[in-house]
Every structure is written in structure tokens, then in C-alpha cells.
Model the fold of this input.
Amino acid sequence: MPLKLPSWLSLLIAFAATGGAPATPAAAQEVQAGWALVDITPPLGYRMSGYFRERRATGIKDPLHAKAIVLKQDDVTVALVFCDLIGVPWYVSRATRRAIEDRYGIPPERCSVMATHTHTGPLYFGAIRELLHRQAIEKHGRDPAEPVDYAAFLEERIVEAVGKALDRLRPVRLRVATVKQEPQISFNRRFYMKNGTVRFNPGQLNPNIVRPAGPIDPEVNVLVFDDPTDGRPLGALTVFAMHLDTVGGTEYSADYPYHLEVALRRRYGEGFVSFFGTGTCGDINHIDVTVRGRRSAQELGELLAGSVSRAIKAARPVDAPSLATAHRVVRVPLQHYSQAEIEEARRQYPNIVSRSLPFLERVRIYKIMALQWRGGDSIDLEVHAFRIGHDTAIVTLPGEVFVDLGLQIKRASPFKHTFVIELANDAPGYIPTEKAFREGSYETVNSRIAPGGGERLAASALEALRSLADTAGDSTR
Ligand SMILES: [Zn+2]
Done:
């Protein structure tokens, strides 16, 4: 159902949009927004990411997209790109943002390229891809699972999406709401077990579970883009913290955000665009261990659409829209392994995709090889903070960030509505808390950063947000 506005309000908005005199001489221009969707579905037969085994795509459940939003106010232009991918590695994000800067003048510090983390997209980077790619070349002289250079294709498509979004800039009315998910669809996936250990995904109805080892983030943050003339919602950015691994199989799919968009289009019209930013869900998924059975991607998307629709209804205009950005780079040490450990991992490397070793042992070998693939003994984690208005900001972070870190940022943020989005501009694996590192289990075995890096990332995000709050209302920005 399109939002119905009283006609006097529509008139007022129409007047404001068509150049009503600014309230004060210093008032900034209105915010403009433009967006575009491009298809980034790889060809069939391409290798798929998400698990420790080889899968090749046999079909398309629903197409994968890169969705770009450009926001512009006065001389500040920012771009946010959401990709239906497991991750975007640093070198792809860097090259893409450089091309965007060259072509459109939006600097990398004001542009964030994010992945939703779907587990039914292409495997185009990382240590597992490297292994399977090399094995294929040894066997066939070429890699039949890579009929195209996907990274190059992706770069091109993202740049194209940002260009189209810029062409479509138009005045919008921005509204914002933060609601609680209803019903609960997300769960912490780490548990204290009766034997004193912590285990991830211990299985449903497992009698040895004591309780979850961490919280969830129940918030659904929604930024709504309304048509300023008739108040109709044209699109919305939703941020929610729940792992996108609900489809599986060998057909491409954008996972539950696809069904979120389908459901929202039923309510708000076919032209409605749903952007999905994945919240900090390194340790959050959709599995309720207290019951049997799991919700499908479609059920999850539709239930989430219920919460998003409530948010769209309840959303209030963003207070004093004033676009500004802050960018930080945090250098964080990586884990260190001895030469002997690296040699042993290299020897065992082919076993990461076989079942000949225990799962966590395979994960550890994978992690050591991922560190070799990446190189260096530290990593630069980029933080982007985008102020939308006095009460609203978006923060983007690399990696699969544990929910506690996102909650820390939200709680201490000077903004009433803080959207925290993970897997931005790099995919260096899990970013656990120090507590989780002490407790162990899958995510920390898989993680490449040294303990403490996550806390430093969160501190930097907060510092960036605070710097933007300090200058809120400063018309020169
Ligand atoms: Zn995952």
C-alpha cells in the first residue's frame, strides 16, 4: 500500500521541493538521491562460494545484483554499493573505487562497496578459489569453472551502476526508523555447552546446550527514500544482522534479501528498490536451536518485510539532513605462524576441500593458507562513516564482524539511528571479540586477525561517528 499523506502535507512538501526559500541563509541544499541496479550473475558453471567444498552453478534461483545509491548535497557526493556476493576483496574494492573516482570524481573515502554475504554467489577470490583454480589448471591447462574474469566484470558493472545512479539524481525526502524484529528470526549461533566449551552451530535440540554465548542485534534499521511530491516510498535501505546462508545448493541466489525485496514490491509497487546492508552478524544466523526445522529464505524475507513495512510506516523525516563523511584506516596485526606450521599447512592444503580431516583442522589450514594468500603481518581495515543528518549515520566495516562489536558502536554512537554494515571494501574473514577468541570455536579458528583487532575497529568507528556529530549543523562541512 502506498503511503497516504494528507493533501496539505503533500502540498507543503511539493512547495519545499520546488524551491521554497531556505529557512536560514546558511541552510544547505536539499539532499538528492539516485540509484541503479545492475545484474552481476556469473555464467552457469562458475564455482560457488560459501562452503569448504567445490560447487559449480547449475542454475539461477534469482539473479545477483549490485545496487548503487548515490547521495548528493551541495558539494558532497557519496556512493554506497550493495553486492549480492559473499565478499568483495580489498583489491577489487580498491580498483573499483579508483575507477569511480577517475570517472565521476567520488573519492574512495566517500564510496563504500559492500557484500551481502550470500552463500550462493561466485567463488572468485581467496584461498579456496586459489586451490581449486590451480588444480583445474594443472588438470586441464585452463579453469573450466572460470569462463570469465569475474573480478574484472564486477568492477565494470559496479562503476556502471554508480554512473547510472548519478544520472538519476533527484530530490528525495529521507525518513528513518529503527524497529525491533517481530517475530524473532535471528539467533546467536555460539553456545556454552555442558562440557564447558563453546561451540558454533551445535545442532537443533542438542541436549548439551546450556545457553547462547552471545547476544543478537534485534534492530531493523530502515532509511526510506520518498518521492517528495507525493510522499510515496520509492525505495529503502534495510540493515539487519543475520548471516545470509539460508538457501544452499548449486543455484545462484541473493538469499533472503531477494524475498524481502519481492515482498516490499508487493506492498509499495514494482518500481520499489530494496537495498540490503548486512549488519554485524559474524556470530548470528537464522537457526533456532530450541526447535526442529528451519525457516526458508522466502519465509525469512517475508517476515523481515513485515518489520521493514512497520518501519516504513513509522519512519520520521531525517532530522536536518546534512551529508558528511569520515574515513579511517586501522592497522591491525594478523595472526602469526611459524615457517614449520606454514609448510605443514601447505602440504595439507588440498585437504581443506576433502573430508579426510576433522572440520576445524581443515579450517585452520585454510586460515593459514588465507594468510599466505594475503601476505603481510598486518592488515589495514577501512572504516567509512556517512552522516545523513543530525540523528542518522551509516558506518561500514570490513569483514564478518561479531554482533557485540556492532552493538558497542550503536550504543555509544552519538546518532540516534546508527546503521552498522559489515563486509565493506574487504573480506578478511571473521572479526571476533577478544572474549570469543578466548572461548574458541569455528569463527575464531577461521579468523585471521590477532585478538583485539575487532575492539580497535569498533573504537575507530565510534571516533569517526563522533567526529561527524561534532560538526553536525556546520553548514560548510
Ligand atoms: Zn558465512
In short: The chain has twelve helices and 23 strands.
